[in-house]
């Protein structure tokens, strides 16, 4: 169930586009970012807080390459009776190693989630515990063999639907 669509200004879109590219390792990264998007540092920080409160920005932080620190990943799928999905999802979500968890339409498997863990053994332990706690035995464990892409950059300034764009405060009519 998608949430309410946020209405973004053109400045918001420039800010979010710049944020996607990452911060420079400089003493005052917010000042540098503010200059890039045409804001004061104070206005930028205030707007970041607002965007976080709105849920547009979930968090600001580093994206660590899990492979570089020795982690391994897998995609899992379970066949869960529809009335048990919330209960099973709660069990799955209790593991910090679970990074994503979705209900999807599929003829057999309707709950899909990903796990990143330090070893295949830990992944197998988590899956065994999930099976024991939920009683769900019909599942798939699809370990990543090769990663082709694991990043998304949203087109916030180019050819996108502008219906959710509001005028910038203070901009001429």
Automatic annotation (TrEMBL):
PROSITE patterns: HTH_ASNC_1, HTH_ASNC_2. It comes from the Bacteria. It catalyses: siroheme + 2 H(+) = 12,18-didecarboxysiroheme + 2 CO2. Its EC number is 4.1.1.111. One of its GO terms (molecular function) is sequence-specific DNA binding. Residues 8-72 form the HTH asnC-type domain. It is an enzyme of class 4 (lyase). Belongs to the Ahb/Nir family. This is siroheme decarboxylase.
